[in-house]
Design brief:
14 strands, three-stranded antiparallel sheet, alpha+beta, elongated
């Protein structure tokens, strides 16, 4: 690996390393208002939520990297103690990019970026109508960590009111699939959290998985299973009984099939055909156990851990490894 000491690097290089390595980052579209009543809005990707009782969010209106001056958001927030944080979605991404321009403090950035201002219920700064999620916030603390270019200012805020669009409110909660969030990466790259880019990973809860050290050695030596696959297996609390695996596998009809047919069965996701074909190929093809592991991997990634375990253990049994 390449090792770099930030104290030996110029500030823009350090900034680039953070942006590229700490990613994707959620974007806070922060609305503030000046003492003269000028509406300001600016995106910040050094941002996240840190607690729910009370609800705490924080973002960094850091000093400008060019001349170390303070941004309008910082000045407005310190003066008024209030802001609104709006979620950023794909349909808004070009507008938030426009809002990141360095306009003067006397410029209404809602107008410049083409956003619609909506009155808040508790705080004075306006909300962004185009965003499906708004948080009215009060500043709890502003910590500064330097006065040079790019130095961090950490604004810690308490959420005093949530606003959620009915378009993304399903079964009394926010639907991740409908929000279409956008996150920030390094350089000019963004991430869209939508469609096939969303995936599920079950939470442990009270579960204590068997862990990698609890997996049979032959599974850890597999050239088919990835570390992610093995971790999903290791998330299970037990390993199937040897005899129950044999009995279950023997209940499936063995299908006289070739490698091409096996591939077609995988695409059609027919459980009986996949298993029957994998069993046949494991006994009649020179690759042998490869097909059992491929089938196990398929079911594992489809969310059927029970069938995945069945085939993985059967592979070990058939090769005298378990």
């Amino acid at each position: 690996m390449i090792s770099l000491n930030p104290k030996e690097l110029p500030q823009p290089k350090v900034q680039g390393l953070l942006l590229g390595g700490v990613a994707p980052r959620p974007i806070a579209l922060v609305s503030t208002i000046s003492g003269d009543g000028v509406k300001n809005i600016s995106p910040f990707s050094f941002y996240n939520a840190f607690g729910s009782n009370p609800p705490i969010v924080a973002f960094s209106p850091s000093r400008r990297g060019t001349d170390s001056t303070l941004k309008d958001t910082y000045n407005n927030l310190v003066q008024s103690g209030e802001c609104v944080i709006n979620a950023v979605t794909y349909s808004m991404v070009e507008q938030i990019n426009l809002a990141s321009c360095e306009y003067g403090p006397d410029v209404d950035e809602f107008l410049k970026a083409g956003f619609t201002a909506v009155d808040s219920k508790i705080v004075k700064p306006k909300r962004v109508a185009e965003s499906p999620f708004h948080m009215e916030c009060r500043l709890l603390d502003m910590k500064s960590y330097g006065e040079g270019p790019g130095s961090a200012n950490l604004a810690v805020c308490e959420v005093v009111m949530f606003h959620i669009s009915e378009a993304v409110w399903v079964e009394n909660k926010i639907s991740t699939k409908l929000v279409d969030h956008v996150a920030r990466n390094g350089e000019d790259i963004y991430t869209r959290a939508f469609g096939h880019s969303l995936f599920r990973v079950p939470k442990p809860g009270s579960r204590k998985g068997i862990g990698f050290d609890g997996l049979p050695q032959f599974m850890k030596l597999s050239h088919v299973f990835t570390a992610n696959n093995l971790a999903r297996f290791a998330f299970s609390e037990s390993i199937p009984d040897r005899q129950s695996v044999i009995d279950t596998v023997n209940s499936y009809e063995v299908l006289d099939s070739g490698e091409l047919a096996f591939g077609n069965y995988l695409m059609s996701n027919n459980k009986a055909e996949i298993i029957g074909s994998a069993i046949y190929l494991s006994k009649n093809h020179f690759k042998k156990s490869y097909f059992l592991e491929v089938a196990a991997k398929h079911f594992l990634e489809m969310g059927d851990s029970e069938t995945a375990w069945l085939l993985a253990i059967y592979k070990g049994i058939s090769c005298n490894e378990y």
